[in-house]
Amino acid sequence: MTQKKDPRDISLSQQYEAYPYPERNPQDEKKRLFIGSPSHLNEIDYWVFGGKRSSEQPLRVLVAGCGTGDAAIMIAQQMARRNRSGEVVCLDRAGAVLTVVQERAKVRNLTNLSYIQGSILDLPNLDLGQFDYIDCCGVLHHLPDPAHALGILKGALKTGGGIGLMVYAPHGRTGVYMLQDALSYLAPIHDVPAKRLDVAKRVMRHLPKTAWLHYNKNFGDHLTGGDAGLYDLLLNPRDQAYTIDAFWNLLDQVGFKVNALIEPARYNPKYLIADPKIREKIDQLDYRCQAVVAEGLAGNMATHVAYVRKAEDDFSMADPYAMDSIPFMREMPGEVLVGQILPSNLLPFSFGMLTVMIPLPAQARGFLGLIDGQRSLGEIIDIVKKRGVPEEKIIPMWKETFDSLQSINQVFVRSS
Ligand SMILES: C[S@@+](CC[C@H](N)C(=O)[O-])C[C@H]1O[C@@H](n2cnc3c(N)ncnc32)[C@H](O)[C@@H]1O
Questions:
Q1: Ligand 1: lining residues by beta carbon, under 6 Å
Q2: Among 92, 98, 167, 240, residue to substitute to test ligand 1 (most atoms within 8 Å of Cβ)
Q3: In a domain, 197, yes or no
Q4: Position 1 pLDDT exceeds 60
Q5: Is residue 159 part of a domain?
Q6: Could you tell me if 287 and 405 lie in one domain?
Q7: Residue whose CA lies nearest to ligand 1 atom number 8
Q8: Rg of the chain over CA atoms, in angstroms?
Q9: How do residues 134-173 score in pLDDT, each as one tens digit?
Q10: d(CA 194, CA 199)
C-alpha cells in the first residue's frame, strides 16, 4: 500500500498537523532544557561511537520525525554549548511541528539546525547526503511499514554511524490498546481530529474505575500532555508496540546490530530477582533472552530505546581500563551520584516506577568524585592511591564501579 492511499496514514498526517506532538510552548525554552534518551550527546559519543570519535570531527545529525523538537533541541543545544561543529537536520512531514521547533531554536539562539518538511520515505530523493547519527524516536511504530522506513534510514547513515531508536513496548502500555480499540468505533479515523478528540475527552471523563489505564502509572501523556498527548496516546490511527524480541527481529531483518539497550541493566533480570537458583538460570541465557525475561518480569516497559549500527560495520569501544582513557559522566555529576549511594553501598536506581538496588564497591565514592571528563583514569588512580587505597585493589574496584554505572547509563569512557 502506498503511503498516500493508506487511510490510517492520512489520519496520522492530519493528527500531527492539528496537534503537534509533544505539546510545547517555545517560551519555556527560557526555563529548561529537556534531556533524555535517545540522543543525549554523551550517549551518542559513547554508545554510538564507542568513545572513540574525536569531538573535533563535525557531527551531521538527522532527526527523522522530529515532532516539536525535544531531541533536535537537546542535541543542537549540547553541541552549541561544547562548540561542537556540525548540524542537526529536522525532518518531519508535518509543517506545524517544524514551526514549533524553529520557534524553540530561536528562543535559544541556536543556529545549527535546519528544517525539512518531508517524509522519511522520500529521504532518497531529498538530497540531504548521509548522516553520522540519526534519531528516530517514537516514529517507526506509527508507519505503515516500519522495516521499509528503517531500511531507508540505513541508507542515509554513514559507515561507522549509528541510529538512536525508540519504539513503544506493549506490557508497560497496558490499558492503552483496550481504549484505542474502543475509541476506534466511537471516534473513527475518518472523522476530523477535533471531533475525535472531543469523543476521547468525553470517554476519559466517564472512564469506569476498572479501566486498566487508571492503574497504569508508566506514562502520563493523557494526564499532563495536553490535547496532543491525549490524542497521541488514545487516538493514534496506527500504533504498533514491539516486545523486545519483536524489536530485535525488526533490527535483524533490516541489518542492524544493537550497541546498547537503554539502560542496559534494565534488561538484566538479575536486578529483578534475588533467588540464587533463578539467577543461575539467568546466567545461562544470552543477553537477548535475558532481555525477554526482564521485559516479562518487570511488566513496566512502555518503550524500548536502542542505539544500533549497521550489521556490516566494525565496532569497538574505548578500553575502560586503559590508563589514558577518560571517564565522563552522562549528565549527573559524580559527586551528586555519590550523594545517592546508601550507607550499605547500594545505589537506588529507578527504571520507571520500579526502583532497583545497584551494588557498588565502598570506594566507588572516591572514584566518582574525581570524574570530571578531563582527568584520565591514570590520574584518577594516582589520586586514589595517595589516599591510601592499596594499589592491587584499585583496578578491580574501578571495574566493578564502571561495569555497574555504565549499565545504568551513568558513567562512560572515551579514549584520549
Ligand atoms: C509521536 S511523534 C514523535 C516526535 C518526536 N520524535 C518525539 O520523540 O518527540 C511522531 C512524528 O513523526 C512524524 N511522522 C510520521 N510519519 C512520518 C513520515 N513518514 N516521515 C516523516 N515524519 C513522519 C509525525 O508528523 C510526528 O511529528
A1: 12, 16, 21-22, 65-67, 70, 91-94, 97, 119-121, 137-139, 142-143, 232
A2: 92
A3: no
A4: no
A5: yes
A6: no
A7: 137
A8: 22
A9: 999 999 999 999 999 999 999 999 999 999 999 999 999 9
A10: 9
